[in-house]
Amino acid sequence: MLAIGVVGGGLAVVTLRNIIHSAIAMMVCFGSLAGMYLLLGAGIVAAAQVLIYLGAISVLILFAIMLTQAGDANVPAPFHRQVWLAAIVALVTVGIIGWVALTTDWGAAASATALVLDKVASLIFTDYALPLEILSLLLLAAIIGAIFLARRPEEDERAN
Amino acid sequence: MGLAGYLVVSALLFSIGAFGFLARRNAILMLICIELMLNSVNLSLVAFNAYAGPGETAGAIFALMVMAVAAAEATVGLALVIAIIRSRQTPEVDAYSDLKE
After folding, report:
1. Residues B41, B14: contact at Cβ < 8 Å?
2. Which of B8, B17, B27, B71 is a good FRET partner for A33, with 20 to 30 A between their CA atoms?
3. Is A19 a member of any domain?
4. Whole-number Cα distances in Å, A41 to B46, B49, B53
5. Same domain for A122 and A61
6. Which chain B residues have a beta carbon less than 8 Å from that of A85?
7. Class of CATH domain B3-100
8. A12: domain range?
9. Does residue A79 fall inside a structural domain?
10. Residues of A with CB below 8 A from B88's CB?
11. Is residue A89 a part of any domain in this protein?
């Protein structure tokens, strides 16, 4: 059921003509993914998925679409000329990865085990402290870069 | 649905994202497809983590970090796309081909 939500949402994203509908389908896809994380016992990842993807990135993308759409959102031809080439590449990719996933003996446990939240919390601030700090620096740089890039040029002239 | 089922869903989502990135012409939709691909990798990380045995946390921590990097990427990517749409008046990437000169 959730898998249908994920794959169907993804298919709707790439095939729908209206980009607003694509964004809504993306939100369906991300919500189903959060459900799959819950099924896998990773509640913290599901919560982060809902907060970051459903909450932040979806709203950001919807804002960007509404800022840039002039008039009607329907474009006559949503695909490039190389659409068949792209389809072949995608089919080959899914074929190879699916074949490897199905034929390899992963030595996996019989059932999914839930994530131990205490351990995640303590590991993030001990073993993974350096990646966490680098991430915070990266986010700061991204915020400053986004402000710089999205600024209108005439505002600079007015400031001078 | 065992580990292989989750991996197949992840592979399907990744290839859908790759197809959309290669085939669609709208710049914002290409960014959405990048997000789909990142999400599929997250799904396989969490699935591997869940089936690796009790007490394993590395996969979930990696998934959380990938999410943070994806948020930074979406921010900068959308800022770039909005800037170029503002200067070219179109979201179609075919109109940007003179950038290669």
Report:
1. yes
2. B27
3. yes
4. 9, 10, 12
5. no
6. 22
7. mainly alpha
8. 1-72
9. no
10. none
11. no
Q: Which two tokens stand for residue B70?
A: 């994806």
Q: Which helix (H) or strand (E) holds A132?
A: helix A129-150
Contact B51, A112 (CB under 8 A): yes
Put simply, the answer to whether A61 touches B74 (Cβ < 8 Å) is yes
B77 neighbourhood in chain A, CB within 8 Å: none
Q: Would residue A100 count as lying in a domain? A: no
Nearest residue to B52 via CA among A39, A110, A37: A110
The arithmetic mean of pLDDT across residues A87-98, rounded, is 91
pLDDT of A98-149, one tens digit each?
898 888 887 777 777 888 888 888 888 999 999 999 999 999 999 999 888 8
The position carrying tokens 């915020």 is A143
Predicted TM-score (pTM) of the model is 0.87
In Å, what is the CA distance from A144 to each residue of A140, A149, A150, B74?
6, 9, 10, 13
Q: Per the structure, how many domains does chain A have?
A: 2
The HSE-up count of residue A93 (CA atoms within 13 Å, CB side) is 18
Return d(Cα A18, Cα A71) in angstroms, integer.
Answer: 12
User: Token pair 């729908």 is at which residue?
Assistant: A16
CATH of the domain at A41: 1.20.120.1200
SS3 B24: strand
